[in-house]
Write a structure and sequence with these properties.
By secondary structure, the chain is α/β, with parallel strands linked by helices. The protein has 3 domains: 67 residues, no CATH class; 49 residues, no CATH class; 100 residues, Metalloproteases ("zincins"), catalytic domain (Zincin-like). It is built from 6 helices and 11 strands. A 4-stranded mixed sheet has the order 1-2-4-3, sandwiched between helices. A 4-stranded mixed sheet has the order 5-6-8-7, with helices on one face. Strands 9-11-10 form a 3-stranded mixed sheet, covered by helices on one side. Helix 3 packs across helix 4 and helix 4 crosses helix 5.
């Protein structure tokens, strides 16, 4: 179970969150800095909320409620008339495990075409075209996803006393994950962009199907046995899907 941060611990500088504004599920990026006020910005990436390092949850939620109508209006505007934005270039950001990585693009031949260094993802390409950069990052996403999912599946498989035959990547349009009666678990490659707690929930959900091939009370009890916060996580995941 995720533990709450103690008061003495500095909260993470960047978080991916979900909330309900004006009756709509909204996901947003929370950034903490040394600023003194709370600022809201909306661009092609969605809602970005900048807050002081020690801003309270009460203050944050109050501002979000006050600006709810404005946020919904602006988000709808971006969705109905999206700008022509070049995302695959140096200085842009991409999502990875609930955080934002800054793309750093260098032209040239290297043994490892993509390397993550802290909060930056370095991409080494020959021609520097956006298509080439996107292809390199997509391959990196798949490699990271396969490794991360396999580790998390092994961890929770022991807790649930199950043994999946395979853990594979999926690009299904309507499912985050799936599980067959033969023991094959598939997890969407884009899950790697979400916070680990949401990935863990999907992993647990699919592994639990190895014992309960349904969504009965017994199934949810099994999920809850290793993922006590599953209801909260399920709501967060739905908010992401509805964005």
């Amino acid at each position: 179970m995720l533990k709450r941060l103690r008061n003495s611990v500095v909260p993470p500088s960047i978080e991916q969150r979900a909330t309900l504004l004006a009756g709509k599920h909204i996901t947003y990026t929370l950034k903490r800095s040394k600023r003194r006020s709370i600022g809201l910005n909306i661009d092609e990436r969605g809602l970005i909320v900048s807050v002081p390092l020690r801003a309270s949850e009460k203050w944050l939620q109050s501002v979000l409620r006050d600006k709810a109508d404005w946020v919904i209006e602006k988000l709808d505007g971006w969705q109905t008339d999206p700008p022509n934005v070049n995302r695959w270039q140096d200085g842009e950001t991409i999502d990875y495990l609930g955080e934002l990585l800054v793309l750093r693009v260098e032209q040239g031949l290297f043994a490892t075409p993509v390397q993550r260094l802290g909060k930056e993802l370095w991409v080494f390409v020959v021609d520097g075209s956006q298509k080439t950069i996107e292809h390199a990052v997509s391959n990196w996403y798949r490699q990271e996803a396969q490794q991360f999912y396999t580790r998390r599946a092994a961890h929770y498989a022991r807790l649930l006393n199950v043994m999946p035959r395979t853990v594979k990547l999926s690009e299904a349009k309507t499912q985050w994950g799936s599980c067959t009666a033969q023991g094959s678990v598939r997890l969407h490659v884009h899950l790697i962009k979400l916070p680990p707690r949401l990935i863990d929930y999907v992993v647990v959900h699919e592994l639990a199907h190895l014992r309960e091939l349904n969504h009965s009370a017994a199934f949810w009890q099994l999920v809850e046995s290793v993922c006590p916060d599953y209801k909260i996580l399920r709501s967060e995941l739905k908010a992401v899907a509805n964005r």
